[in-house]
Amino acid sequence: MEDVESRFLHLLQPIRDLTKNWEVDVAAQLGEYLEEVRQSFHPRRPG
């Protein structure tokens, strides 16, 4: 199996690189967005 993988490594590597772009913590991103939206409707007052 390693022989086959090494033969096609140059073809598989770009695909692996693309999948890294999709490794996003969606819950964290949505949480940050929700906090920004909340602050836009209820800005914090200094003091």
TrEMBL record:
Alphabetized UniProt keyword annotations: DNA condensation
Stored InterPro entries: H2_N, Ncaph2
All copies of domain Condensin II complex subunit H2 N-terminal, residue ranges: 6-39
Alphabetized GO MF terms: chromatin binding
Coiled coil: none
One cellular component (GO) term of this entry: condensin complex
GO terms of biological process kind: meiotic chromosome condensation; mitotic sister chromatid separation
Full protein name: Condensin-2 complex subunit H2
Protein source organism: Gopherus agassizii
